[in-house]
Amino acid sequence: MRTRTLDWEALRNARDLGGLALEDGGETRFGGVARSETLRELTPVGWDALAAYGVATVLDLRFGFEIEGDRPLDAGPLGPLDPSAPPAPARDGRAVQFASVAISLFGEPDPRVAEHFDAISRAQPDEVASTRAVYLEALALYRPHLARAVAAVADAEPEGCLLVHCHAGKDRTGLVVALLLAVAGVSPEAIAADYALSGPNVADSLASWVEGGADPESREHRRRISLAPEQAMLDVLGELASRYDGAASYLRDAGLSESHLDRIRMRLV
Fold first, then answer.
1. How far apart are CA 6 and CA 175, in angstroms?
2. What CA–CA distances, in Å, run from 31 to 18, 19, 28, 165?
3. Do the beta carbons of residue 146 and residue 179 sit within 8 Å?
4. Is residue 24 part of a domain?
5. Cis peptide bond N-terminal to 72, omega within 30
6. Most CB within 10 Å of its CB: which of 18, 172, 216, 230?
7. Quick check: is 9 in a domain?
8. Could you tell me the pTM of the whole model?
9. What is the rounded CA–CA span in Å between residue 173 and residue 201?
């Protein structure tokens, strides 16, 4: 039986989006789309495993300052992930090339926006309500950016696997992946269950940040942010259906064509 977990050395939140139940029966295919946290800590062995898996395109959802701050580690042992660069030779002589697409899902950093989201999160009674409220606000404010990210998946070279990631691989990646899977016809329950896997996967890497809060209130707020409640994503998908008539309509209204949506389905199903 094929496993969804991707054993790429030093990554904790990498998995394939294959094997997820479709509402009309069947399941998503393996090798079409994978998700992970930042590739900054990926070891040379991990990069070899990523290449061997067939990753051909990397979609990076982080802010520009996050990407620039990671260089050159995010480039990996094969050089920068630049689609215009010539193929770089791997250690065994094979030519390997990764196309890279960078789309900051939340635009340019803005302290006022950060404070806005922080206030929304803190005003909620628990982590489920907090996550739900923040994600719904992100869907409302960043529809063009989310549509660009989904379009980038549709426009990527169809051969090979596309890897989408942000920093922890939970929030920005979680929203984009939820839209992709919903367009492909994956059941809300399966989407939410996949999302929830990120909570325990990133717990260790975020533990010191959570404990580093200045006071108990800050530590509790950080604890909430570090979680990935399954019910929150179920609620978000329900609101996506009621407010926007589903993921496909949400994306169409942002400018995506039926061809884009069809190519998403072809990649995942």
1. 20
2. 7, 10, 10, 16
3. yes
4. yes
5. yes
6. 172
7. no
8. 0.92
9. 14
